[in-house]
Amino acid sequence: MPGGPSERVAVIDLGSNSFRMVVFRMHDAGWERERELSCAVRIGEGLLASGRLGDAGMDRGLQALDQFAAVCGQAGLGAPQVDAVATSAVRDADNGADFLARVRERTGFDVRLLSREQEARYGYLAAVHSTTLRDGCVLDLGGGSLQLVRVAGRIARESESWRLGAVRMTERFLTADGPAKRSQCKALQEHVARKLERGAAWLADSDKRLVGLGGTVRNLANAADQSSQRALIGRRAAGPPAEEVQGFLLTDAALAELIERLAALPAAERSSVPGIKPARADIVLAGALTIQQVMRQGGFTSLEVTGAGLREGILLERHLLTNQLDFLQPARAA
């Protein structure tokens, strides 16, 4: 393992909804999360309409990265120990490169702009190495994009990526005030269905095990777990504990019940549903509707949740899996 039996590295993820940093410590027995920071930056806000990152979102992002830089400095982590990446919103924005230049000048972070193929790969690595998944599908839902990967024999065989993230779908289909209308929810799911039909014809033929990752997935699982007294049924599958929701099975029935409850509330009140985070209250319904459509078209009756994600995938590729796994078919733009 590079750097000896005990090494620390910080992985920073500039996501469309949240900026996150995890400081990992690697040692002979494996790795552990030493420290985690998360800021609800919402840098992808307004991108759908303007094609650009807004000034307010960029300012929030820079403030979050100032905090991350301070933590790295206090921990003695220099450039070789920091791996910072940006995903959908920064990738798609006309001024994304300008923002990353500002980040580098202000914090010293040299941020890698991930392609859709790379983003899908990291989610796949995280899923197959945090669960027992051998054959099935990986779902990675972020604020800006959705990635699906078909897995056979633990190898990624097919992959697709779409601009179907929770922030984008909220801005395009759901109203900012008042409960969600049935027609709005239907329009969102029909849009997702059309994208999946054109880009993932293999979905219905994949093995019927679905593993999901991402903040929206974890938040929905947490809400379903807390709301079990309302017949939101979940059970735990075998898997290494990464977070409290690791291995939770979110059933199609539980998801449908959650969607009904969330849609009946104005966006500002959805955090009143136990388990729903205030920072995700306005976008969680769109995420839930997107996941439900994937489950319908793939014939999945449950979604197995992993607490691992893109950051763990980066760590795995960087330190643990060099030349051991082959990502056979990259994602295509959709």
General description of the model:
The model is unreliable at 229-242 and 322-334 (pLDDT under 50). A hairpin with a 4-residue loop joins strand 6 and strand 7. The strands form two sheets. Strands 8-7-6-9-12-11-10 form a seven-stranded mixed beta sheet, sandwiched between helices. Strands 3-2-1-4-5 form a five-stranded mixed beta sheet, with helices on both faces. It folds into two domains: 7-114, ATPase, nucleotide binding domain (Nucleotidyltransferase, domain 5); 117-312, 2-Layer Sandwich (Nucleotidyltransferase, domain 5), CATH 3.30.420. The radius of gyration is 19 Å and the shape is globular. Helix 2 (55-75) packs parallel to helix 4 (96-107). It is built from eleven helices and twelve strands. It is an alpha/beta fold and 334 residues long.
Secondary structure: number of strands: 12
**Would you identify the CATH architecture of the largest domain?**
2-Layer Sandwich
The H/E string reads EEEHHEHHEHEEEHHEHEEHHEH
Number of domain units? 2
Q: How is the largest sheet built, in terms of strand order?
A: 8-7-6-9-12-11-10
* SS class: alpha/beta
Strand content: 15-25%
> At the fourth CATH level, what is the homologous superfamily of the largest domain?
Exopolyphosphatase. Domain 2
Q: Portion of residues in helices?
A: 25-40%
Residue windows where pLDDT falls under 50 for at least 5 positions: 229-242, 322-334
Major pleated sheet:
7 strands, mixed
Shape call: globular
Reading off the top of the CATH hierarchy, the class of the largest domain is best stated as: Alpha Beta
User: Termini, distance in Å?
Assistant: 37 Å
Overall radius of gyration: 19 Å
CATH topology of the largest domain: Nucleotidyltransferase, domain 5
Average pLDDT confidence is 89
Tally of helical segments: 11
